[in-house]
């Protein structure tokens, strides 16, 4: 079965690509507005893209056509954000922050989460998340209606027990982030693991 | 536990980020060299980033410092590639194409896979993969030692039964791509699904 995406309208292209390109890691992003309100929102058009320098990218999208989401607006103003990874313990909280609130209202107020002060950025991070990446914007690329924020990771906070500080290897039983699956509402657990050694 | 990635060497930053930013979708990429040899290699610094136009990005990295992998070299020459998603049926074949062969030798020769002619690009695609995205390079960004290829998806091939051609929704029981997990060798299955409805 073949689909010509250039001919299709973008709603179809979105459904097809957001369903096929899976599982996607989830960036639960905090930003800070000029009044000091902390915004939180999840995005799964997201990944790491290199380590020299430590490079991540995510696409915050628009609230509606031409109106950037608060996340994009805040990053444009101050260039800082924190990306949290999401496991089962914060999955419901993450999902509840996907609601669009009026600009200046915090998604975090009702959730009983604990914020910690950022060390490399002024944006606070969510203590309950298993991992938090403090980032500075490198640049933002606009391609058609798409907006991709490129960030350099300054500092990483990891829940106790997840990472061996000597080897920098992860304990895969202690860290099971959820993944984003097919549009509109599917997610996966990552408790079913297997290993494949890279060939020489 | 906190790590300052700017102070760390990039090997540590790689281990930390490639283990935390998971599960990652896998791009099994075919390209074509000037002699007509088909190259195949997997990359998990990859995602979709928008639908207007249909935008994907992946980081092909270097074979060794300063020497681009064949994938990057071929895309630089002709600007075309096909990204395949990977499920259990092609996982071993995908992994075997991670081996570095001399330039001009095909990773696909020994694998008994069937190639089909590209329709929007001259690069062939692998029939056994559950989904194949024919892409043209939009641009390639270099940030430090990192290289990010941005591509526009022209055409999508999907295995029969995966996508409802009317609704463009996926049958989540018919499509279970594997995901890349913690460095160096962990993968996940995506058979353990759950739904969360986006709040209004």
Q: How would you characterize this protein structure?
A:
- The structure is a homodimer of 200-residue chains.
- Chain A has 3 helices and 15 strands.
- Chain A is mainly beta and 200 residues long.
- Chain A has a single domain, classed as Pnp Oxidase, Chain A.
- In chain A, β11 and β12 form a beta hairpin.
- The longest helix of chain A is centred in the first third of the chain and has 11 residues.
- Chain A is globular.
- The N and C termini of chain A lie far apart (36 Å).
- The interface between A and B is large, with 97 and 97 residues.
- β14 of chain A pairs antiparallel with β15 of chain B, so a sheet runs across the interface.
Helices and strands, with pairings:
The structure is a homodimer of 200-residue chains.
Chain A: E1 2-4, H1 10-20, E2 27-32, E3 38-43, E4 46-51, E5 54-58, E6 62-64, E7 67-68, H2 70-78, E8 80-85, H3 88-96, E9 115-116, E10 125-126, E11 131-143, E12 146-158, E13 179-180, E14 186-188, E15 193-195
Antiparallel strand pairs in A: 2-3, 2-8, 4-5, 5-12, 6-7, 8-11, 9-10, 11-12, 13-14
Shape of chain A: globular
Strand order in the sheet with the most strands of chain A: 3-2-8-11-12-5-4
Order of helices and strands of chain A: EHEEEEEEHEHEEEEEEE
Structural class of the secondary elements of chain A?
A: mainly beta
Number of strands of chain A: 15
The top-level CATH class of chain A is Mainly Beta
Q: What composes the largest sheet of chain A?
A: 7 strands, antiparallel
Total of helices of chain A: 3
Most extensive interface, residues per chain? A-B, 97 and 97 residues
Distance between the termini of chain A: 36 Å
In CATH, the topology of chain A is named Pnp Oxidase, Chain A
What are the segments of chain A in which pLDDT stays under 50 over at least 5 consecutive residues? none
β-sheet strand percentage of chain A: 35-45%
What is the CA-based Rg of chain A, rounded?
17 Å
Q: Which quaternary structure do these chains form?
A: homodimer
CATH superfamily membership of chain A: Electron Transport, Fmn-binding Protein, Chain A
Give the % helix of chain A: 10-25%
Total discrete domains of chain A? 1
The average pLDDT score of chain A comes to 94
* Annotated CATH architecture of chain A: Roll
